[in-house]
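Record type: monomer structure entry
Structure origin: computed from sequence
Chain ID: A
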Amino acid sequence: MTDISMSDHAVTGKTAPPAEARSMRLPTQWLGVAPFFIFAIMFLILPTLYLMLGAFQNDAGEFTFENIAALAQPSIVAAYWISIKVSLASSLIGAFAGLAIAIAIVRGGLPEWIRSATLTFSGVASNFAGVPLAFAFIATLGRLGLATVVLNTLFGLNIYAHGFNILSFWGLTLTYVYFQIPLMVVIIVPAIDGLKKEWGEAAATLGATMAQYWRMVVIPVIWPSFLGTVILLFANAFGAIATAYALTGSSLNIVPILLYAQIRGDVLHNAHLGYAIAFGMIFITGLANVFYIWFRTRSERWLK
């Protein structure tokens, strides 16, 4: 046996590295993801922990629940409620509209370039927010916006005379829908792609109509993905600040604007109450992301 092993080493010209050398090898495979972890720790994890700690402290650094209890103030409760309503409305509208677009480009028999163009635009539009988006909607649907003037001139329809206001709840919701729809398209298309053609053929062989196939096969399969994406859209809208502030300023009292005013000028005269407001936002968005991951896991079991 010794002769055979020696001859094998002679043929290959290689010897096994000593155990000490193997244990001293640097973990170079982690260098590629090191910038990500450093960035996440410095700008996400540590600031979040700092806010959570500050929410349960007073000015003297002592542990207290007073800041959390102060969130029951009517103005703060109203801000949370408006934010929840805007986020929920924009996520539902964006989810159903995006689902219809995704179904059309994946299973609607449209040319392939339509799908490519739609997904490309959706990838860009889902990240288009902030001051440019607010300006675009003011220039389009403001009192002197292009669409407002065209509707009034050609059709005699004055949308502002009928109660519409770009600086109101529905104005902000409509603005959020702009990036909610493409985000829904980007996320839900893989779920629709996962629907196997064999399922439709099997259903047709068994005599099922198209309506029965969608009601009994397609909807149950994509339902977890749909719900998970709605929750993700809700979290996406709930934390948005730049678009809302650039569009409405302080005329609409939503939580991100209230928190921004607190950080800029301490309007609540309690820095730790600002931490508590941020903690409330973290709790809501974190809970939404937990449900999103749960629904996503359930949908992947069907689509594998």
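Annotation 1: The radius of gyration is 27 Å.
Annotation 2: Residues 74-107 form the longest helix (34 residues).
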